[in-house]
Amino acid sequence: MPLSTSTTIYTGGAQTFTVNFALGFIRRADVQVRVNGEVDGSGDPVYRAFTWIDDSQITVTDTLTIGDSVQLLRTVSKTELKVNFSANTDVTPANLDLSAKHGLMVYQELVDGRVDGAESPIDAADRADAAALAAEADEVAAAASAAAAAQSASEAEAATSFTLSDRTKLDGIETAATADQTGAEIKVLYEGESDTNAFTDAEKTKAASVEQRANHTGTQALSTISDAGTVASKDTGTSAGQIPILGTGGKLPAVDGSLLTNIHQVYQSGAQTITSAGLLTLAHGLTGVVKSSAFRITLLLECTTAEGGYAIGDFSPINVGATLSGAGAQGTSIIWDSTNIYVRFGSLAKVFQFLAHSDGTRLSLTNANWKFHLRAEL
User: Fold this and answer.
1) Can you identify the CATH homologous superfamily of domain 266-377?
2) Phi, psi (rounded to 5 degrees) for 312
């Protein structure tokens, strides 16, 4: 596992990543971000811009694409001492720890293979082990070759001698043996072995009369197949009387579900821009919806720029409805029809108002710092 880097695959949503190195980092300036191992025209690494949320999290400024490999790197100085005791720096536990930590971080970069012109000690050890194994393999091969040569010489000598074993073998051969066993003798011996049953002429005739099913490639009327049931006669498809087949992801194909009842349907809008007095037209894609449908509406605000004690990526529910004043209105007005859900935002410059999470005081939200989400359930 790398010690001076950490890599995360971006899956969408907030572009926030955890800063998680072995031993952490000494200063923020030592931390850099690369995406997909990018290099410039000269082959040098390209580093992306980012901002710090705190010492444990950053946000990448450039827009990322789902599937991007985001790598955080910690690179400490190789030419500058973090603590210079020869320059009369105080010898304190904190300075001793900082000096040791700096050295360990340089070593971790060496282990990760990130120090130019230097070989990782792990790679060097692997190379030494490989050389030792190769030398051992050569010794084993040489010993095996010598043993094979000795065996060949022994076999050659044995081939030229007439041993007592050879004479005993000849003594066991029948006198005047000149012919092979008869078919009847072979049959008796063969059938005397286990799992060797005779296949008679009668059994062969019976087998020849059995219809060939293993290699059957033609058609057969469904009515001649017992226990086939009525489903076997149906074609697949989405028309009347057909059986639908699940598609990619185990989902049903598009069919008319207007006759289905008690089906729980859900629509989620995704992040929407908040515009004072603006109108959102959201195509809900749900079936069987009329203006009097009993929708259950849930509204959420997503924080995209920190405000009032809310951090980036926080979600907070809000009520449907409006707060009116002489200067205008805050909140939402929502109606729907069979196709769309219509959301009208309040006319004040700051559309929404609720409690500040930091101290509980009233907070009118800055439109640009938040995104609007709507969930409708039927």
Assistant:
1) Immunoglobulins (2.60.40.10)
2) -60, 130
> 317 - beta bridge partners?
300
Of the pLDDT bands very low, low, confident and very high (cuts 50, 70, 90), residue 258 is low
For 149, other C-beta atoms within 10 Å of its C-beta total 10
**Residue in the structure block whose two tokens are 């991007």:** 68
101-115 average pLDDT score: 91
Residues near 55 by beta carbon (within 8 Å), at least 6 away in sequence: 19, 28
pLDDT at residue 356, rounded to an integer:
95
Q: Could you tell me the pLDDT band of residue 218, with boundaries at 50, 70 and 90? A: low
Q: What is the pLDDT at residue 131?
A: 61
With cut-offs at 50, 70 and 90, classify the pLDDT of residue 54: very high
Does residue 284 register a pLDDT over 70? yes
What phi and psi, each to the nearest 5 degrees, are found at residue 65?
A: -110, 140
Structure tokens at 204: 């062969």
Any idea where the domains of the chain sit in the sequence?
Answer: 5-111, 266-377
HEC assignment per residue over the chain: CCCCEEEEECCCCCCEEECCCCCCCCCHHHEEEEECCCECCCCCECCCCEEEEECCEEEECCCCCCCCEEEEEECCCCCCCCCCHHHCCCCCHHHHHHHHHHHHHHHHHHHCCCCCCCCCHHHHHHHHHHHHHHHHHHHHHHHHHHHHHHHHHHHHHHHCCCCHHHHHHHHCCCCCCCCCCCHHHHHHHHHCCCCCCCCCHHHHHHHHCCCCCCCCCCCCCHHHCCCCCCHHHCCECCCCCCECCCCHHHCCCCCCCCCCCCCCCEEECCCEECCCCCEEEEECCCCCCCCCCCCEEEEEEEECCCECCECCCCEEEECCCEEEECCEEEEEEEEECCCEEEEEECCCCCCCEEECCCCCCEEECCHHHEEEEEEEEC
